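Batch manifest line 367
LIGAND: 2-acetamido-2-deoxy-beta-D-glucopyranose
JOB: complex structure
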Amino acid sequence: MLTRLTPLFFAGLASAAAVAHRSVDVVSGQTSTGASTVQFTAASSGFDGPKVTNLNSTTFDLWYFDVLAYDLSASVTLSFYTADPGALFPQAADVGSADYAEVFVTTPDGDLWVAVVPADSLTIVTSGDGSSGALAGGNATWAGSSDMSQYTVTINAPDQGITGSLTITTVAPAHFPCAAASSMAGQSYELAPGLGWANAIPDANGSVDFMLDGTPLSFQGSGYHDKNWGSKPWDTLLNSWYWGHARLGTYSLVWFDFIDPDGVEGSSIYLSENNVIVASSCAGNLAVRPVDGDATFPPTTQTGLPNEFSITADIPGQGTLELQTSQSGILVEVPGLSTRWAGQISGTLGSQSLTGIALYEQFTFVS
Ligand SMILES: *[C@@H]1O[C@H](CO)[C@@H](O)[C@H](O)[C@H]1NC(C)=O
Ligand SMILES: *[C@@H]1O[C@H](CO)[C@@H](O)[C@H](O)[C@H]1NC(C)=O
Ligand SMILES: *[C@@H]1O[C@H](CO)[C@@H](O)[C@H](O)[C@H]1NC(C)=O
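JOB STATUS: finished
ARTIFACT:
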């Protein structure tokens, strides 16, 4: 259950412009039996704050972070969930609480480290557009600035071999599924019916300092932060999706290409250059397609994995974006559900050549 402790607290400084709306929410790990209230229309602030009030067994709200090493040698992906397993998908972690953090770390040695940190509650402080969260007991936290320019995430799971922190500093402005995050009030957070998405940090300079069973892992890379939430179980909201983000020189790219429960494709494309949005739209004719391996489209829980993806989109004023991945490896694979890759990505934007790195995934929910 989500309890609003302080609806509005004026962290008032000298001028009205410095006043940031602040609220504190505590999400219990035991979900409510009543109906949730799920927010899909933006208010004037609170972009990265909680969107589900009175969390129940079929609604979910989560915060996601990642950093991919510039040389592709290592990665961290980390999520804070408020969700019962039945609100996500059949293979979701069941830790006896809706509140938990889950972290995946890949190392230069090719090892995969996983830790799941449960807690009785998650406290989220929303200040301006940014949010900060702490699992009860403090074994996993995130702390964001009110303008969403910087986030630090910590994890303390020594019994599972993982402790450490990461910091991401934005290089790409926030966006809604189909629009930039400027002039927020009234904008839609709905990527697909019932599925919310707020991308606070589409790309960042990231710095990771972890200890893995006493061995340090430190690296710099491209970082990212978003949140998803839903009014129904996640696996009923979409049939499949392709999502990813990339750093291509001075450009930052985020894509979402999905098949809805009626079999209809929907998409969102975001491109910024030097911290200025070039495109943020659902009308960019984005097409993400599997290439090589099992290139069945759309993918299902029964199909195999492609080796690569092609990404094409229309970027107004810049021409056609045409990219293809070149995978360096699979970061995480849950057969029949999801696979996350890292790799190089290259191609063209109009007449310009682009090359960089990407972290991307495929989810399949139907057979
Ligand atoms: C949870 O809340 C949603 C949204 O209000 C509602 O549609 C759903 O029926 C609720 N689920 C349960 C199990 O009460
Ligand atoms: C935090 O992590 C430590 C080490 O794993 C553990 O002993 C402790 O019980 C955890 N605290 C909570 C509140 O879960
Ligand atoms: C991010 O890193 C790039 C490359 O090192 C650097 O040019 C840029 O100033 C950094 N931006 C921020 C906001 O730290």
